[in-house]
Structures are given as C-alpha cells and as structure tokens.
C-alpha cells in the first residue's frame, strides 16, 4: 500500500536479561521497560530521549527512502501508545498523526506525559482506542487514561481527535479490521489539511468512534 514501516528493535528481547524494569529490582533512570526512557521522567518541557530518538530514526530512513514529509505517522499500544502520545504532544511538527491504543496520560497517576507548559500542537490527527471495561493493567484504568488523553487533544485547535471504543480489553484487538481502518483514517488527513475538512467514516463492526472527547466513559 505504499507504507514504509519502521519498528525499533529491543536488544533486551534476545539477551538474557529482562526488558521490564519496574519493581524492586527496577530502573531508576526513567525507564519502565527497556529501552523506553520517558515512562517515568518528571514532567518538563523537554521532550526526552525517546522523542529525540524516534525523530532521528525517521530522519535516517528519510535520507535513503522517498518519505512524504506530510504523511509521517506513529502508533503503538499500552506503553507504545503512551510513547506515541508523547511523540505527538512534543513533536507534532514532524508527525502528521498517530494511533494510540490503551495508553497512559498520567502514568501511575503522578508522571503526566504532556509538557509542563501548554504547547500549541501543529496540524495533525490522533486516533485514540479504548478497549472497554476490561482495559486495565496494574493500577491503570484506561477508561480514565484514554478520556484524559482525548480531552488533551480535543482542546488543541489544530488537531483532529478521533476517540474510539471496543470491547477487547488491554491489548490490540484481534479483529484485524480496526488497524486498516485506523491507518486509512490518519492517512486521509495529511499534514496541512484543514481540521474542518476531515470526514469521519464508519468504523468496523464492534467499534464506536466520535470526533472529540469520549462520550461513552
């Protein structure tokens, strides 16, 4: 379909050491899983090492492949969704959009991922996915987390916010239809497209979506 897909490789997954660093033997350097550094950083106006790494990764790929600068998107689920939101909130100049599934907004209730001072985000689109009442992990209730996330984006005048719900819990939905639909949704709104021009299409069966803040939780 013309996509260039880039996924960072976690070296810990092939080495004899844990990737998950929280807990009594966990890391105190801002990582909750390796190599994610921004998960437990104190709130500030600095984007953090992960956002800078992702941008440098995109720049490296763009140096060797024909990348459309108006159609650069990122996405992920759970911790990857939180990283996606951090990329969008701090670097919407680069990203035309993102798909964030079951992500934290206020990590562990005390590490907000948004900038310390209000940022005006660049023209972009964000699709947020909540997995329904069973979307929980540890102390995180992703009904609360995704609603807070949608409120943040909906308050940005330049951002199309698509808030979606399913019943799949805290994982990417097994129904393969949501991913292609979400990809087509963000692709329909490249960088520079006026917010008013966006048209929300009908999501796949089993999912509901609204423009703006969630209305179901």
Structure, briefly:
The chain is an alpha/beta fold and 217 residues long. The chain has four helices and nine strands.
Task: Describe the protein's architecture and organization.
By secondary structure, the chain is α/β, with parallel strands linked by helices. It has four helices and nine strands. The protein has a five-stranded mixed sheet, with helices on both faces. Strands 3-4 form a two-stranded antiparallel sheet. The radius of gyration is 17 Å and the shape is globular. The termini are far apart. The mean pLDDT is 90.
Secondary structure category: alpha/beta
Task: List the secondary-structure elements in sequence, H or E.
Answer: HEHEEEEEEHEHE
Q: What general outline do the C-alpha atoms trace?
A: globular
Could you describe the largest sheet, including whether it forms a barrel?
A: 5 strands, mixed
Mean pLDDT: 90
The helix content is 10-25%
Fraction of residues in β-strands: 15-25%
Individual helix count: 4
Residue windows where pLDDT falls under 50 for at least 5 positions: none
Q: Provide the gyration radius in Å.
A: 17 Å
Strand arrangement across the biggest beta sheet: 1-2-5-8-9
Cα(first) to Cα(last) distance is 35 Å
The count of strands amounts to 9
């Amino acid at each position: 379909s013309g996509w260039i897909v880039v996924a960072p490789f976690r070296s810990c997954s092939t080495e004899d050491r844990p990737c998950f660093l929280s807990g009594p033997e966990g890391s105190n350097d801002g990582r909750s899983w390796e190599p994610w550094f921004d998960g437990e950083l104190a709130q500030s106006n600095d984007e953090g090492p992960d956002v800078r790494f992702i941008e440098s990764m995109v720049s490296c790929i763009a140096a060797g492949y024909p990348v459309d600068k108006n159609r650069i998107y990122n996405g992920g689920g759970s911790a990857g969704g939180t990283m996606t939101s951090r990329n969008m909130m701090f670097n919407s100049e680069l990203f035309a959009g993102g798909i964030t599934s079951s992500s934290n907004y206020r990590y562990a209730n005390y590490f907000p991922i948004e900038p310390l001072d209000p940022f005006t985000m660049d023209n972009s689109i964000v699709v947020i996915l909540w997995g329904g009442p069973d979307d929980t992990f540890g102390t995180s209730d992703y009904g609360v987390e995704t609603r807070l996330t949608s409120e943040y984006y909906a308050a940005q005048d330049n951002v199309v916010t698509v808030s979606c719900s399913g019943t799949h819990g805290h994982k990417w939905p097994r129904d393969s239809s949501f991913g292609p639909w979400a990809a087509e949704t963000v692709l329909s709104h490249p960088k520079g497209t006026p917010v008013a021009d966006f048209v929300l299409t009908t999501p796949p069966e089993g999912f509901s979506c609204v423009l703006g803040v969630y209305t179901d939780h």
